[in-house]
Amino acid sequence: MTILIDNTKRREAAPGVPRSQAPNPTSSTPASLYKSREQIYPKLAHGVFRNLKWLAMVVLLGIYYALPWVRWDRGPGQPDQAVLVDFENARFYFFFIEIWPQEVYYITGLLILAALGLFLITAMFGRVWCGYACPQTIWTDLFIYVERFFEGDRNARIKLDKAKWSVSKIYKKTAKHIVWLLIAALTGGVWILYFHDAPSIARDFFTGHAPMTSYIFAAILTFTTYSLAGFMREQVCTYMCPWPRIQAALIDEDALNVTYRYDRGEPRGAHKKGATWEGRGDCIDCRQCVAVCPVGIDIRDGLQLECIGCALCIDACDEIMVKIDRPKGLIAYDTEANVVARIAGEKPRFRLIRARTMIYAVVFAAVGGIMLYALLGRSTLDLNVVRDRQPNFVRLSDGSIQNGYTIKVLNKATETRTLTLSVDGLPSPTLKVAGQTGLNLIVPADDIIDFRVLIVEDDLIDIGVRGDVTFKLVDPVTSVTAIQSTVFVTGS
Asked: Domain of life, per the record (predicted)?
């Protein structure tokens, strides 16, 4: 007699809910420290967080690809690109802000703000940066979208990789890699637009007249995008990026993280139709949370270094909960403190405002306030004075003393300025500017000009060996003033 066994039921975690064949990342056998990468085939998730990730991907990629083409009028002779890193003229332009090399502290402040902001967001909401805004995540999402378009969803891709080579497989694989390379090349090409006038460098790039550095960096970005988003993917997050190690020091039991609520889910196991839910957890061990995970972990094992906080497992689990008529939120943004509180019969509470987050917020606000104050109060005129040391001073035939100085005048305005030079601090100084008769200095717009200045002083009684002297530059039209102090050496 032949006995037929229905294997379909064995593959069901609950009636109508198939058990995913995603491998269980945890095992009683210790994992080898050295092993080849196992390909991960993330399943397409549907839900709120997947839609948020689509939105983030479209917006952030749109900004990256479109921003170099945005124009911003800065006046005659000035670049009209809204965002431009101009190495040739040593400028950084960001809409109405122009940063000179002497103002690199603004870049430093911006980096400090970015770090503090990341600390604050992580302490409050876990690794949302990694899950929604990190370039590695954004481009990997895009590459997986292309892969899914040509090869199908998770099961279809697994089946295709196991299948023998055929015309269909060659076509799908080739088409996927061609599109990957086109996206990578576009990414690398757009990168160089941020360092040159976009329309000009785009034209020169394709006609072979662009600088060699443009081709080199475009090739580097093309290669890194293709390899990191197409092949290395989760390995970048797990092994190359330092942030998973750092974020462990920034979160605590009150930080919101993608959390498996084991107080509700355990004990887990398959659920038969009509069976009671008493004495068991809501987790039916369908492993759909593992199937959608882009890094291939099981969120039920708790907070892990590999988890990027993308919340796709929340969407997958909520979809299953609806099918088995159980409340959503078995996996959700929650805190470890709340899970422990529910087990103890206490009311859960969310503490986004606590000592850690307040410190980050206060320091962030302080640094931001200092930067804003400095930016609003920045002068369009700058002066730097360097006194000659060889010779230290010159004694003239009439007994007076002469000191030489080189002054650098920085005009950040968009128009040419005629500035009046004077000095304070000496009894009766005689001021001379080499190469001209008067004390009016003409400085072109958006430029730095060096001037050679001589100071002669004959009243040396009250000065001593050295005296303080202050150079002053005044724009008579706007009354903008630049001051720089130095010394006058007599040798007496």
From this structure: Bacteria
- Tokens 């909520």 sit at which residue? 318
Nearest Cα to 204, choosing from 226, 223, 189? 189
CA angle 417, 422, 427 (to 5 degrees): 180
pLDDT, position 445: 85
- CA neighbor of 178 nearest in space, from 188, 167, 170: 170
pLDDT for 25-47, tens place per residue? Answer: 555 455 566 667 788 999 999 99
| CATH code for the domain defined by 381-489 | 2.60.40.10
Sequence ranges of the domains in the chain: 41-70+126-243, 257-347, 381-489
Q: Is 65 helix (H, G, I), strand (E, B) or coil?
A: helix
Helices (H), 194-311: 198-207, 212-227, 234-235, 243-247, 262-265, 288-292
Tracing tokens 């080199």 back to the chain, one arrives at: 216
pLDDT digits (tens, 9 = 90+) for 244-263: 888 888 888 888 999 999 99
Neighbours of 482 (CB within 10 A): 20
Residue 79 DSSP class? -
What number of CA atoms fall less than 13 Å from residue 159's CA on the CB side? 8
Helix, strand, or coil (residue 447): strand
Confidence of residue 311 (pLDDT cuts 50, 70, 90): very high
The predicted structure's pLDDT at residue 3 = 38
d(CA 346, CA 351): 15
d(CA 230, CA 224): 9
